[in-house]
Amino acid sequence: MAGLNVSIAFFLSVVAICEVIRQVSKRLLPLGVHCGLVRELVSSLQLCACCLELRMLMEIGPWGGGFGPDVILTLLFIIYLIHGVSFDGASANPTIALQEFLVMDSSFVATAVKLLVQFVGMEAAGILTTHYWSWELTDFHLIQNLMALDCSSSIHTSLYHGIFVEGVCSFFFHLVALKFQHSHPLYRAPVLAVTVTILAYTAGPFTGAFFNPTLAATVTFHCSGNILQEYVQVYWLGPLAGMLSALLLYQGNIPKLFQKNLLYSPKSKYRIPKGKAVPGLKQTGDNGEGQLRTKPQS
Question: What does pTM read for this prediction?
Fold first, then answer.
């Protein structure tokens, strides 16, 4: 259990350091720089660093530490719960950034900057976490350093099934995120954490259940077992297709691509009251203001 305690201390340290950086940035830097750069950069680093350490525990823990999947899933839920509360509006996920662009909540330049910053943050997390493992504070880290020389792919199924799995995970994740996008973080964070935990438990054995293109690229693209084209199809095209499907199902259109609602008929903002006909009056037509003209019957 000593190795698990060290990993928990690592999680807490990463979250605490990233939160300090967020708070300092919010107070000292312009709002645009904080929201568009620092917040995404720090949140991406936090997400990737925690996921790398958790993946190490998932691979080594069952036979090296004697704890089962229940411990990993509990940690996953707690970590994503903390992420949901502490991210302060950052997504740390390219498909969410692209979704904001497609619904016209973000400009092309702002979206491109987010994607670049997310990539830089996660690559920095990979470098820092590898350096942390080199300290070999636990036997887990020693074993991880030996395994890192020849890591294996997270795709343990056929290519098309892997694309389908990542697409379905992304679909449900984005559908839940859209449903609760305007809810308070204290309500939204637990729902998303439960969703991620369920998807990881269900789809993890097949593809690792990343449904985050940049995170997958940092964690598994360098491993042997699949070529780059297969990784891109599973971890980039799959989540992108899932996001587009969820967005289309949720609101019936993709505003940046087409305005027409393909699934739902628009509801009128006003309701016309229905009344009984008045004896002695005859309806003659519309007066141009949405009201019916009447005249006495002779």
Answer: 0.85
Structure tokens at 166: 């990542």
Of 113, 75, 74, the C-alpha closest to 94 is: 113
* String of DSSP letters for 2-53: HHHHHHHHHHHHHHHHHHHHHHHHHHHS-HHHIIIIIHHHHHHHHHHHHHHH
Query: What residue type is 298 in one-letter code?
Result: S
Closest to 96 in 3D by CA, of 126, 118, 122, 120: 118
Instruction: Please name the residue ranges forming H helices in the chain.
Output: 2-28, 31-33, 39-64, 69-86, 94-102, 108-134, 139-147, 159-179, 185-207, 213-220, 228-232, 238-251
Give dist(CA 294, CA 273) in Å, integer.
16
Half-sphere CA count of 109, side-chain side, radius 13 A: 1
- Angle (CA) 93-94-98 rounded to 5° is 125
90: burial class by Cβ within 10 Å (0-12, 13-18, 19+)?
A: buried
Q: What is the pLDDT of residues 68-98, one digit of tens each?
A: 889 999 999 999 999 999 998 899 999 999 9
